[in-house]
Write a structure and sequence with these properties.
It is built from two helices and nine strands. It is α+β, with helices and mostly antiparallel strands. The chain folds into two domains: about 110 residues; about 110 residues, Immunoglobulin-like. The chain has a five-stranded antiparallel sheet with strand order 5-3-7-8-9, with no helix packed on it. A four-stranded antiparallel sheet has the order 1-2-6-4, with no helix packed on it.
Length: about 240
């Protein structure tokens, strides 16, 4: 309420001061004219009225200055309030964006498959070796997560080829076999590694990072969304 009453009160004060100066001027003029024996000239009246109107101008100059300062302060307050409102809107939008990203991330995790080890071992014997040494290996996996579509297998062990017994739809509960084959004894190669590329229910690409320990034997698989990392470039001999 003060923000609206103050300018009105200031205007009323200005008018009261103007009335007071006018009344004083009239009284002073009556006194001067009553005591003067000679009539006042037009120049005297002009000087007298000029002094009175100068007082009026000074009064309303002060009123206008105070009004201007008040409007500037009100404008600054409105600007500060608008900036605070804008910051609150930006913060709300940021929270909404973070919430949407979090929901997308949770949804993406929910759609990932979970490939678990169901047994592995050697599957073939090298006929040219005196000893029975496996030259291939198989790993049986079961999908205990969300259903996906298996796309391809990519070997990450030099000299080893990788195949999947059946690509395509891999719903929850389905078992499949990943086969590793080499020309020599496969256990001498150490761990067998490969990527299994797949697509989730939203047709987004992902991959399973698979490592087979032929000595244990044990298979570790971790699933991720996105494209599998590119293999490191081989150094060029100088």
């Amino acid at each position: 309420m003060r923000e609206y009453l103050w300018p009105e009160s200031l205007d009323s004060r200005g008018w009261r001061l103007t009335g007071a100066v006018t009344a004083v001027g009239i009284v002073f003029a009556i006194i001067v004219l009553g005591q003067s024996t000679a009539p006042a000239s037009l120049g005297d009246w002009g000087d007298y009225l000029g002094g009175i109107f100068a007082a009026f101008g000074f009064i309303w100059l002060i009123v206008a200055h105070v009004h201007g300062q008040r409007q500037i302060r009100d404008g600054q307050k409105d600007l500060e309030n608008q900036m605070a409102l804008t910051q609150e809107v930006v913060a709300s939008l940021s929270r909404l964006a973070m919430s949407a990203q979090l929901q997308d991330a949770v949804r993406m995790v929910e759609l990932l498959p979970v490939f678990t080890d169901s047994g592995s071992g050697g599957t073939a014997i090298n006929p040219h070796s005196v000893m029975s040494i496996p030259v291939s290996w198989h790993a049986r996996l079961e999908n205990q997560g969300e259903g996906v579509t298996l796309v391809e297998a990519i070997s990450r062990t030099e000299g080893v080829t990788v195949t999947v017994d059946r690509l395509g739809a891999c719903p929850k509960g389905k078992m499949f076999v990943v086969n590793f084959a080499s020309k020599g004894p496969i256990k001498k190669l150490g761990n067998l590694r490969c990527y299994l590329r797949f697509e989730d229910q939203l047709q987004r690409g992902g991959y399973a990072d698979m490592t087979v320990d032929t000595n244990t034997p044990h298979t570790e698989v971790s699933c991720h969304m996105g494209e599998p990392p590119a293999p490191p470039e081989s150094p060029i001999a100088g």
